[in-house]
Write a structure and sequence with these properties.
By secondary structure, the protein is an alpha/beta fold. 44% of the residues lie in helices and 14% in strands. The strands form seven sheets. The chain has a six-stranded mixed sheet with strand order 6-7-8-3-9-10, with helices on both faces. It has a six-stranded mixed sheet with strand order 16-19-20-13-21-22, sandwiched between helices. Helix 22 runs antiparallel to helix 23. The longest helix is centred in the last third of the chain and has 27 residues. The radius of gyration is 31 Å and the shape is globular.
Length: 922
């Protein structure tokens, strides 16, 4: 085949210039808080062409696609479909208009069958308008056979591999008979055979005069199948023209905005030409790793200063091996040692403490916590080391973050920008920074350059080389054969979860690797030891080592500061440099390092937040709407409600809202973990039932027993959620029903009067004129705010809610934190029950706490905490409870029934959820 830059345009005889325009964007602009994503971008797509859309991550490709497909509404400019203006307010409208999209992350329904996913929303019907499952399954099977996917269409989608799921997404997109098909990195999870099937389908689409927008960072693919190309850079249109008129280097030069001569000097990858100094003694040894149906007796060694490649097709066990080494995949049998010390009871946290860090393959599902800032994502795994007595040190965080933002050239408006708003390449750098700041001994990289642009890819590749040169042991997994061969000192090849062979020295080449993959290589071996090679002077891996930085004085903060492990044992690095040659990868002997300055010297300051970008209306309402509503109600009542501003009335309102605030604070912690607790009302009733039973032993024992009951309720809920794995709504439903029943049994179903004056003073007493219940609620609000924002526990709660998988891989004690959150919620509910009982001077388990769970959830949601977790707004929760109380009081004082208040509350909840949804969609 001719070189890509010489490949002819794949138009099958049809000149793109004469084809009619099917989709056009004219002068499109799109802004986000702090970011101009698109700036006057124009794009034209012709019928029957395959149009490449390229640019670095952050160039605006994904935003333009989302504008074209109705995910985002443009702030300026217009869209035309077949020369007619269109306005898409949601993706469904774009699909109805004939625009179908295949996203890099499969956007199907995992629990539904393959056939249901393919025909979702357009299922074939019988005469009675019921779903015709027989026809649907038959048509789905026929469609999948055309794609070479031999799976049962009745099988749940989540049981398929990611590559097969991507083919199902492709089948769905093609089956809707669209005029335009948008493909965003469609081959990122496909095997070579599936890629060929995809290219055949694209050829069929072209022959049907269907236009394809093709987004990919893989140059070979672009030059093979695309007719024209549009280049974006920094949200601006740079070039549109025939792809055959540009060679590969010219295209890269346009994407990066660099001189062509500089791009040519750097070559295809940014790995160094020379080999690495590899120590004799391995830092990590894994033997006999077995996991049923996934790993079969895999053994390997990793040496300081070595890049060990792990090759194999999708499903070969590459990612499973990396996760097993990182403690994220439990093994049936096997032994893993670090520096000779065995790792027993392997877990992610234990692996991290031992010096093993994993950069996962799927950065969105298992890596970043999108709702947290760049700063919080970087320090996530290091929180315990950056804390003192559980209190997070912001200054220490900032020092670490500043170093790695500069060193890795992370482009963000500020360290406080949400990481979910960054480009894929910058998100990958954030994850690398998370692990490098721990000074790991072993770095496991699973597809580190997947889905990132050529500029970010070059920086990551150069960093991998640099880390190995400075003594870090690196395991590199890549589906890009060229990258794997260029970057590895050795390659262990896997097949069906077992070791198929090992390539060393001259064997490390594309031809040898392909031969082992094809299972006919006589050169393949199964040795697991690396050749002994000398070190590079000045790069000893020992005390004070920090990847990429000069040695630092002990405990010195500033440039070069990293979080220190305990000094690692010295490794036997063999003879001195004068006693033998360094290891050199066979296929690259004689090649020196390419020109250009080292990556670590190319520090780019993060762009400032644009002062012209205004906060969107949904964002403003979610941030400040609840406070504005409270202020509006206060003003209304001040003018139109008689005696509302009297001290007695305000005191009454605060006393009534205090228990709701207390329960809502606990509920906010639970919702922050993407959970919910329906048992808070029962916990209140249980505490109320226990009080009169134990008051005879004294007030303090009675209070402690009542609070302990709430803690037990929370512990049961937490265990069901974190250990058993039940959904929170199901787990807490049991005690929602059973807890109140237990309370009624303890109280014999009777209301009991409280005469203990000390207990009654909690409900009716004051301090400096402020009711005690209000003071307690205020103190708890301050304590929870401090807990959330300033403690390790609080930041872990938010991280778990934002991305539980990423939190677990980062070594966070997920089960312990979840259990602790539910215990706190139960204790807060019990405290509210105690205070309510003291205020009412009676224990009434039959009615106390009824519908409290709904009041608490309402306060949290209206206060701006999303039900999806990952954020907790403590002050907003307090304001939400006040809003609901003021609303009810206002309606009652104006002689409206309580049902009206309930309807108004429902309307406010709907509005709050809608505002949160609109903010996420923008």
């Amino acid at each position: 085949m001719a070189p890509p830059e010489a490949a002819p345009s794949a138009t099958n005889g049809t000149e793109p210039s004469v084809a009619p325009t099917v989709l056009e964007a004219r002068g499109v602009g799109k802004r986000f808080p702090g970011v101009v994503a698109l700036d006057d971008v124009s794009f034209t797509l012709r019928a029957g062409e395959t149009h490449a859309l390229v640019g670095e991550n952050g160039a605006g490709k994904s935003t333009l696609i989302k504008v074209l497909t109705g995910v985002h509404r443009p702030d300026s400019g217009e869209l035309l479909l077949s020369d007619r203006p269109v306005h898409f307010s949601r993706p469904f409208e774009a699909q109805q208009a004939g625009i179908s999209t295949i996203y890099q992350e499969v956007n199907l329904v995992p629990l539904m069958s393959v056939a249901r996913n393919i025909f979702l929303g357009r299922e074939p019907r019988t005469r009675l308008r019921l779903i015709d499952f027989s026809r649907m399954h038959a048509e789905a099977a026929a469609l999948l056979d055309g794609f070479g996917v031999g799976v049962d269409p009745r099988r749940p989608l989540h049981t398929l591999g990611i590559g097969a799921q991507q083919m199902v997404a492709l089948a769905r997109a093609v089956s809707v008979r669209a005029h335009v098909v948008v493909m965003d990195e469609p081959t990122s999870s496909l095997e070579p055979r599936e890629v060929e099937t995809l290219f055949r389908v694209i050829g069929d689409l072209r022959r049907q005069n269907i236009a394809v927008v093709y987004v990919s960072h893989r140059m070979d693919e672009l030059y093979r199948i695309c007719d024209r190309v549009t280049v974006l850079r920094d949200g601006r249109h740079i070039h549109t023209g025939d792809l055959s008129a540009l060679d590969r280097m010219q295209l890269v030069s346009m994407m990066l905005g660099r001189e062509l001569s500089e791009v040519r000097r750097h070559g295809t990858t940014s790995f160094a030409g020379e080999g690495h100094a590899i120590a004799r003694k391995p830092v990590l040894t894994a033997t006999g790793m077995v996991r049923k149906h996934r790993l079969d007796d895999i053994s390997l060694e990793l040496h300081p200063g070595e890049v060990l490649g792990l090759g194999g097709l999708l499903g070969s066990g590459r990612s499973e091996t990396a996760k097993a080494l990182a403690g994220a995949l439990p093994l049936d049998t096997g032994r893993i040692t670090v520096d000779g010390d065995p790792l027993d009871r392997m877990s992610s946290a234990r692996a991290i403490r031992a010096g093993i860090s994993l950069l996962p393959e799927d950065r969105k599902a298992e890596g970043i916590v999108p709702g947290l800032s760049v700063r919080e994502n970087i320090v996530l795994a290091a929180l315990p080391r950056l804390s003192r007595a559980g209190i997070v040190s912001r200054a220490r965080q900032d020092r670490v973050v500043d170093i790695f933002v500069k060193r890795l050239r992370i482009k963000a408006s500020s360290p406080e920008q949400k990481v979910g708003e960054l480009s894929g390449g910058n998100q990958q750098k954030v994850l690398l920074a998370r692990w490098l700041c721990l000074e790991p001994k072993v770095l496991l990289l699973d597809e580190p350059t997947r889905g990132i642009d050529v500029g970010a890819k070059a920086e990551v590749q150069a960093l991998i080389d640099e880390l190995a040169q400075e003594g870090l042991a690196v395991l590199l997994i890549s589906s890009d054969i060229e990258e794997l061969v260029e970057g590895s000192d050795r390659i262990v090849v896997l097949r069906n979860g077992a070791t198929a062979g090992e390539l060393t020295g001259e064997q490390v080449s594309e031809s040898e690797l392909l031969a082992v993959l094809a299972d006919h290589s006589p050169a393949a071996t199964t040795t697991t030891t690396a050749p002994a090679t000398p070190p590079r002077p000045g790069h000893a891996y020992g005390p004070g080592f920090c990847p990429g930085h000069a040695p630092r004085p002990s405990h010195a903060y500033g440039p070069g500061f990293c979080l220190g492990h305990a000094p690692s044992p010295s490794h036997d690095r063999g003879p001195s440099p004068s006693h033998g040659p360094s290891h050199s990868r066979g296929r690259r002997q004689g090649r020196g390092r390419r020109g250009g300055p080292p990556m670590t010297t190319q520090v780019t300051a993060a762009p400032p937040v644009g002062s012209s970008v205004r906060r969107s209306a949904p964002a403003w309402f979610q941030e400040y709407g609840v406070y504005a509503a409270v202020a509006a109600l206060l003003l209304f009542n001040a003018f139109f409600t008689e005696h509302f501003l009297t001290a007695d009335n305000l005191r009454t309102q605060l006393i009534q809202v205090a228990p709701i605030v207390i329960v809502a604070l606990g509920m906010a912690l639970v919702i922050g973990t993407e959970g919910v607790d329906l048992s808070v009302g029962s916990a209140m009733a249980l505490a109320a039932a226990l009080l009169p039973l134990y008051l005879g032993y004294g007030l303090v024992p009675a209070l402690l027993i009542a609070l302990l009951a709430g803690a037990v309720v929370g512990a049961v809920n937490g265990a069901l959620v974190s250990v058993v794995g039940l959904q929170p709504i199901v787990a807490t439903l049991a005690l929602f029903v059973g807890g109140r029943g237990i309370a009624l049994v303890m109280a014999d179903g009777q209301l009991k009067q409280i005469v203990n004056p000390d207990l009654l003073s909690l409900g009716t007493g004051s301090l400096l004129g402020v009711p005690l219940v209000v003071l307690i609620a205020a103190v708890l609000a301050l304590a929870v705010a401090f807990l959330v924002h300033r403690t390790t526990f609080g930041r872990q709660v938010v991280a778990i809610g934002g991305n539980r998988s990423a939190a677990a891989l980062s070594g966070l004690p997920v089960k312990r934190v979840l259990t602790g959150v539910y215990i706190l919620c139960g204790v807060f509910a019990a405290l509210a029950g105690i205070l309510a009982t003291a205020r009412l001077t009676a224990s009434d388990p039959s009615s106390l706490g009824t519908l409290m769970e709904l009041s608490a959830i309402t306060a949290v949601v209206v206060g701006g905490t999303p039900l999806s977790g990952g954020s907790i707004r403590v002050l907003g929760t307090v304001a939400g409870a006040l809003l609901m109380q003021l609303l009810r009081a206002t309606l009652v004082k104006h002689d409206l029934p309580d049902s009206t208040a309930q309807i108004a509350q429902a309307a406010i909840i709907i509005a709050a959820v809608y505002v949160a949804r609109e903010r996420r969609s923008r």
